[in-house]
Amino acid sequence: MKKLWAAKKQGSTEPVIWDFLTGKDAVLDNIFLPYDITGTQGHAAALVKARIITRAEEQRIRKALNTLREKARNGKIRVQAGDEDCHTVIEMYLTKNLGDLGKKIHTGRSRNDQALTMIRLYMRDQSKRLAKNTNQLKNVLAGLAQKYKSVPMPGYSHAQKAMPITVGQYFSSFVEALTDDLVLLKAISGIWDQSPLGSAAGFGLPIKWPRQIAARALGFPCIQNNPIYCQASRGKFERMFIFCLEMISQTLGRLSADMVLFTMQEFRFFSLPDNFTTGSSLMPHKKNYDLFEMTRAVRASLTAAGLETDLYGFNLISGYHRDLQRTKEPLVRTVEDTAQLIKVLTSALEHIEINTNNLTRAISPEMYSTAETMKLAASGIPFRKAYQTVKERLGKNSGTPP
Amino acid sequence: MKKLWAAKKQGSTEPVIWDFLTGKDAVLDNIFLPYDITGTQGHAAALVKARIITRAEEQRIRKALNTLREKARNGKIRVQAGDEDCHTVIEMYLTKNLGDLGKKIHTGRSRNDQALTMIRLYMRDQSKRLAKNTNQLKNVLAGLAQKYKSVPMPGYSHAQKAMPITVGQYFSSFVEALTDDLVLLKAISGIWDQSPLGSAAGFGLPIKWPRQIAARALGFPCIQNNPIYCQASRGKFERMFIFCLEMISQTLGRLSADMVLFTMQEFRFFSLPDNFTTGSSLMPHKKNYDLFEMTRAVRASLTAAGLETDLYGFNLISGYHRDLQRTKEPLVRTVEDTAQLIKVLTSALEHIEINTNNLTRAISPEMYSTAETMKLAASGIPFRKAYQTVKERLGKNSGTPP
Amino acid sequence: MKKLWAAKKQGSTEPVIWDFLTGKDAVLDNIFLPYDITGTQGHAAALVKARIITRAEEQRIRKALNTLREKARNGKIRVQAGDEDCHTVIEMYLTKNLGDLGKKIHTGRSRNDQALTMIRLYMRDQSKRLAKNTNQLKNVLAGLAQKYKSVPMPGYSHAQKAMPITVGQYFSSFVEALTDDLVLLKAISGIWDQSPLGSAAGFGLPIKWPRQIAARALGFPCIQNNPIYCQASRGKFERMFIFCLEMISQTLGRLSADMVLFTMQEFRFFSLPDNFTTGSSLMPHKKNYDLFEMTRAVRASLTAAGLETDLYGFNLISGYHRDLQRTKEPLVRTVEDTAQLIKVLTSALEHIEINTNNLTRAISPEMYSTAETMKLAASGIPFRKAYQTVKERLGKNSGTPP
Amino acid sequence: MKKLWAAKKQGSTEPVIWDFLTGKDAVLDNIFLPYDITGTQGHAAALVKARIITRAEEQRIRKALNTLREKARNGKIRVQAGDEDCHTVIEMYLTKNLGDLGKKIHTGRSRNDQALTMIRLYMRDQSKRLAKNTNQLKNVLAGLAQKYKSVPMPGYSHAQKAMPITVGQYFSSFVEALTDDLVLLKAISGIWDQSPLGSAAGFGLPIKWPRQIAARALGFPCIQNNPIYCQASRGKFERMFIFCLEMISQTLGRLSADMVLFTMQEFRFFSLPDNFTTGSSLMPHKKNYDLFEMTRAVRASLTAAGLETDLYGFNLISGYHRDLQRTKEPLVRTVEDTAQLIKVLTSALEHIEINTNNLTRAISPEMYSTAETMKLAASGIPFRKAYQTVKERLGKNSGTPP
After folding, report:
1. Distance (Å, rounded) from C-alpha A120 to C-alpha D368?
2. What is the ipTM of this complex?
């Protein structure tokens, strides 16, 4: 494909260099292409206001881009290894189909604000998708909490038996954690959901530009004013977004860690049907809960991806650097990992077996020592005295299950 | 000092073990002590409602704690290596001064929700302090932006001269970035500013408890409902808070990186008076801008501290683990680093010299190529054609300073 | 394909679960397949000694595996989404082609020691490849150092002009750094290059097993004795290996950071031909050194991948966990990133232009202040006095380029 | 104290700036002071050869420095908040006591190579200390392995009962892991144990310098040749050293994670005497194994400190940057954390109770399924068939403890 930003003598570029520079864009940009198309449609609206194109021309561009989106969806057009990126694919497509009109599309924008825009549209879309899926998971958790609200369960602190809780309380704790995680996701979107279009290469435009038009067309609540800051938020806003997903993976990672423990033979509070587990190639008796190990592991990926995103811009000066191109990869990886994590856990929890007998049996008498102490305290004995009284009564058995 | 939570035969504990378990609490808990005192006063209010103590007793406790706060402020009472922690110091102080009434203070709470409470009060306080300082820095930056709004400055992308900006736009970009950072700080405080008091050891209390009273007394907008989730948010909420500070350090780190570059002899866009710089022990001619290197470096500390906080709870099951005690250290370190970062940069920017001549001279003719292209595009020539025209005109000189 | 380790009713496993559990193995295991084949050939040698198969049967297995390796190389056989992993592909292939003999191949091994083996063979191979490529890069650097050994260049500390060096010294510094990096790579291979075969699932085998035979057949200098430690080194040895590559990327990242700076218009000490650079889609005059930005960025990827590898096993107990399966991905990513980094930099440095005039002109008089001081010191004046003398002479101009 | 490297008008430096620039050096440099003294004595030997001072003068310097070392040990001289750093303390001390001779000590060196030297001497010393302590811990572990070599213990994979092992094998696995960790420590010291003295500020010296003399005097096996690389290894060599400690903490972190699990009431394979455990302030029955939680947590600190060290130099150009000063803090923190970790675990394992009954009882019949399969395989039945036979026999009970 023809190049738009290769410097000169592009034909002679050594393949090893070209491959390196485009990096994983040939794959990743297919994910971003639909968002870039939408962003371009928003930009076209501004071009009308700026009197670069007419309203009728905008309609032709919009229509052509709709067709392109459709072709991309059907796999008829794909960003490929030889292409520069999805931005070039769009301009070339328009030029091929609309002639000189296509050559007007890049007026007043740079690939910089174009990329910023498509990434934010992507994050907005994925944000909604992940929130929806998280809500479904919350429903499953809330259902379990309701159904088993009276089933007792040992509460552990320092991994030692502490006080009785209920299965209802247990699953509810994750419902509340996820609620906070979604509040975070929404709160942070309030920061990154600003329109960068019109910041161009990070220095704004040498002419007056109707930034508000494109922002409105694309559903951005506001424009991000300073063009230098627009550029500086590349990487920063992705980092914020990934941070929210990290928090979700932390919540679900803890749930998974619990499940790995509580499905051990020594506990078997919970179990899964055979078709959710695996065996061993060597040990015929094994029934493994790989599923919960794998859901636990997602947090590691996301934490590393968050750091990676951060590091690309570490200690760099203002202005765009190609290093930041690489932030697309951990962003997409993070979104897909999180989506899969939520889906898999939802499915597993829909099929989880709650072993009421094992749970009930696990409550040992000494776990009521706090209740006993509190009862004494409520009767007027100073708490610390009551505590000592109960502790001495437990005597030598303290800490040992009877 | 007498121990409250050492298991048994505490006198015989080997010193190496004791030192290890208390860790840095002997130092850190002096920072948290005032917040723990306030938290205890809030808890005392709940004790009245729960009929454990009378209103008059609450007043005696409140007064005693005010005195303790005062003594801690004056350094007359300090958490020391031999103590367990600040929680023990408080209960022991009350018991020593109020007798049996002191022994009632721990009714209905654990060191777990006590620690959660004091940490959130600490974060609330530090949040305000850092926001205030950040606003002062913003004012200094806005002042510079206003004063030098018409001074030209080269904008760089890929570290190459790109388009002209102004010193005003440049400093404004950091004002806007910090504004977003403060929005983030506030948005996230909306999540962690919930009262954990009454969650006790992470399993709630075996009797009905007036959680709302303590929450109100301490200014928490709401209670954090599920006690298991209260416990699970230890580490999580600190992580969120640190993340906000990371974002501030990212903004100020970029500013610092710019300053390191722009004070080089090859640029000298900006400079600092001698008393803000250092020399070399070997090279008599050196004038070093260590200050900006050190402000740049804070981001590294904070990023690592954020990770550290995250890692303490990594892959652990629900319920408190002593690992989480160690989160206090990166939290305090982060707050102090950020406070110093803001203060130092504010001071430096109040004294910065803007070298208008060097800035103006640095604008080279080819930086107007985009303006030229846009002008052609505005006149009706399709942008891509205009771009090619200008590019060819620049000819061999493309990319080379004249 | 038939399954070997799926628990039961495997046909009914929900696709979302299956996809999640196999993860990226369908892609990654094609990279590991040849090493797994080789490992299996080594294992077959042990089977002879253990009297499970005859020497003649071993020959049939070896031959069949050679054919499989060939087919894998030609893409005629590939691990696919429906398969369990490369281990299953091998056993199924042997069983299909050799009948009951194929069913004997897994005697005395688990997928655990099988995976450990193939990963180490992979690391050994990649280690050699990367060392070879690094040596080529060292040669290019040494060539530059030799060719420009007398060209002066300003040395910077605190990013300020410090003392004169030469281009020769400059490039030599990276030759020496890479030499240390290769020493590290070799030293660390001395740790991970131990045979884990015979550790089976991490608990050894219930019968005596000729571990030495397989180790020798596969060129391992020694066996890794304790089977529990064999398992515990999954993730640990990969981490060590990645750490070495991190060090290479640190060295080359600094070189790249230098190049980004020294190709700026303000320096232009070095430049690249046009076909190694890129332009801008908006600014016609731009010539960008994206290449050095992208080589700088590799360090960020590797640092994150190192952390990721570490995190999968964080806080986990002894014994295999499925979390560790995910370590394969950052390992492969790291190797490929490093290989590309070395190749691209080698190519770039083969074409780099050394701008002698700019380098020479950049040496300013004050950079000789240390030489002057040393001369006085050599003449007998106490150094600190000499330093003060020179400093005063530089007077007001200290730190200012003349 | 008089300043050596403050630029000018140092008296007027604003306190906030001065505090920030010296950072934690006032505390940390007391740890480094003895090593800096030793390094200075080595440098003095080179000064003789370079004819800057006489042999007799060197003796006076050596003696004065011995006295200073003694005073530092007794706390009579301390680096303080007002001082620049330990380097200044040394030169000022010599100048005060030896007059003009003291003013000669800095001839031919910079604080840069001085700091590099003292850090390496510190790492060499700590390396020996930690290796010695690790060997003691290995002895304790080997003693346990020997004493309980025949006590059975369940081996877990995927946290599910897998195959029987012995307590002997279990503890031996950590002996072998630590052996590898010490091999790593030694191998890596082979890289950083090079003399940087004579590299001065990272550009070498303008006169011929007897670098070999100082290297020999300080016991460095070789000099680190290129002065630019000497400087570039600041941070890099510390990173390598910390990496070794990370590996130790990984090994001991896994041991600790095991202990947290195996001291749970559901297992109680191991226990600790009361004076190694703690209780709860609320729950009178609690006996907590905080100790193992705290030893597990050290890995988190070290991983973060490793990253922190790495980040200070991230994306920076060649030459010293003040950012690197901050690497001293995570280095010292890491060393002290590791030392404490080893000491505490050694002490705990010396007192650990092995509960043979619980261990033996935990071996359930299905754990012999692999032995059974191997027996069939050894009798000539193809392994996969034997596996299926045993699996079917286990029937519905597969994966369920009998």
Report:
1. 56
2. 0.95
